[in-house]
Amino acid sequence: MNGVGQHEIRTQRSVIDFFKKALGYHYLGYWKDRDGNSAIEETYLIDWLKRQGHSDKIIKKVLFELGKAAALGGSKTLYDANREVYAKLRYGVKVKRGAGEQFETVWLIDWATPVANHFAVAEEVTVLGQHTKRPDVVLYVNGIAQNTQYVSPTSLTVATASKKLTAGSVPCYVVTNGGVTSTVNWILT
Length: 189
Known about the structure:
The chain has helices spanning 6-22, 42-51, 56-70, 78-91, 158-168; strands at 26-30, 93-96, 103-106, 119-123, 137-141, 144-152, 183-188. The chain is an alpha/beta fold.
């Protein structure tokens, strides 16, 4: 092995270990070749919502509303989608059990009790789309990506890092059925 990239790999492993061991994040795995990677991992979100006591009917409505907020198309820009998804994360999703019923708020994140949330980390998460990308580390809360991290050598100039980010990673993290970005961090090794 020629050593190219080995320092970055060691750094990435250290970052993953920090989230797993020091912060107690659930390790989702190495998702380079996993099909269906998304900024909204429905399986984990559904599990979390069920643990909060929500019915399948309500969960289905929540997923529909969240997917609608994240979807791009027509005149809806990535900025618009991000704003709508943020509102759902911050203020909850308003749904009705049935016609004539009152709206109820379903929280995607438990802001009152942070430890009640499911924190998870995955690495090398390949996301196919207009700009296929593979963040080195992705942090999820209740199945929703909140942060993407790229590990790069210190020899990478700021100009090169910015070009790399804007050329292949904007939108920096795209849902396969719409658009959502998450916070992006560069980790220099």
